[in-house]
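ok so i was messing around last nite and threw this chain in just to see what happens. nothing serious, just curious
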Amino acid sequence: MATDASLDRGKWANLPWLAVSAVVVLLDQLTKIWALQTLRYAEPVPVIPSLNWTLVYNRGGAFSLFHSADGWQTVFFLAVACTISVVLLVWLWREPARGWLPRVPIVMIIGGAVGNVIDRLRYGHVIDFIDVYVSDWHWPAFNIADSAISVGVVLLLAYEVFFRGSAGQK
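result:
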């Protein structure tokens, strides 16, 4: 039977995973500083076929959702990102420490959300610069934080579908 002290240690055991969030935030912010100092707004710089560096400012959400709205979206997306981050932090705190697989996606999402929150607070918009395209079709520009969020969500869904249920942890 677990004691209160061992349960508390289990909660604290999840906190080092936040180092992954910190790495995501650091990489995200460093690459955005590079983009701001190196790239000209909306001028593509070819990297390899189907990949450009193109500096753009995203006032909207994922995939530039609500980009053209009249300003309310900054506060809205700040609130959403902060709420999701807090919910995930509480989940990480309460979840018993059981392996890396469920934790890595959570801390990736937190790191990505924090990276974009920093941009919204600093600039009023998110700095995007990764431009992936095929022929004349371009995916909406994104950044390291967006990538961490997307990969984190996919890994979390995969964990929930393929591992959590089969391990009898539901």
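not much to say yet. The chain has five helices and four strands.
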